[in-house]
Amino acid sequence: MSHAFTAAIAARDANALIDTLAPDVVLYSAVTNAPFEGREVVADTYRSVIESFEELRVVDEFENGDTHAFFWEGRIEGRYISGADRLRLDPEGKVREITVLGRPMSGVATFLTGIGPRLARRRRGGLVARILRVTALPLPPLLALLDPVSRWILNARSR
Fold first, then answer.
1. 79-100, pLDDT tens digit by residue?
2. The CATH number of the domain where 75 resides is what?
3. What's the number of domains the chain is made of?
């Protein structure tokens, strides 16, 4: 059975997603160690997430008691990214904790260039959004250089 949060992600419906959040929800991001705390902050974050994805689809979903997890894939700024979200629910079925994991690193870095400025604009204004965008912009292409190097290393013959 799909949780309403997962259905809202698949439908890219920010308002429906926000309705699933507990007031004291905490989001643990794939990008930063600092937790995003409270419904207002997490709501702003997911508005920015939904706006940033050019494509987004849920590809798998699991449930065990008060824990739901789903795998997703999509594109932000033309870069492929996939990941998994683990949701923990409160007794009323509202999302109280979200943990997001993502891959590859170049895609996760695109969270900073695509989602970060939108969130920064909502929370801190245009200047902070521009600074974040400019400082993070080199990260996705720089990390994308690891992909061909990794393939080259993995395809090496044993000596």
1. 999 999 999 999 999 999 999 9
2. 3.10.450.50
3. 1
